[in-house]
TrEMBL record:
Entry keyword Membrane: yes
Record-annotated membrane-spanning stretches: 12-42, 62-82, 88-110
Function of the molecule: May be involved in fusion of ER-derived transport vesicles with the Golgi complex.
Family: Belongs to the GOT1 family.
UniProt name for this protein: Golgi transport 1A
Length: 112
């Protein structure tokens, strides 16, 4: 798992760096490959495939992996937009998790 966290971190770094350098397609493609392989190292091949190919997450997986494919085909801006939409559909539990963490921490100026 430690290698997977490092590979995922490098993937996120390359994705951020690729966006900062005006959607450099090589950096974005490298970041996507590292992110997906790091996720596979962390949770395993079977669980990764199970996560992406669940029936209720099909639309999110389609857009996310389609965006990765568009970035790999050197259409970085359209690919990142499609991939971002798929990411939001796939990982829609983040707002719920953030609300839970904020309610558990109980910081007055962060809680609304």
């Amino acid at each position: 798992p430690e290698i997977g966290v490092g590979v995922t971190g490098f993937g996120l770094f390359f994705l951020l760096f690729g966006v900062l350098l005006y959607f450099d397609s090589v950096l974005l493609a490298f970041g996507n490959v590292l992110f997906l392989s790091g996720l596979t190292f962390i949770i395993g091949l079977r669980r990764t495939a199970h996560f992406f190919f669940q029936r209720q997450k099909f639309r999110g997986s389609f857009f996310f992996l389609g965006g990765v494919s568009l970035v790999l085909c050197r259409w970085p801006i359209i690919g990142m937009l499609v991939e971002s939409y798929g990411f939001v559909l796939l990982f829609s539990f983040f707002p719920m998790a953030l609300a839970f963490v904020l309610s558990a921490v109980n910081i007055p100026f962060l809680n609304a």
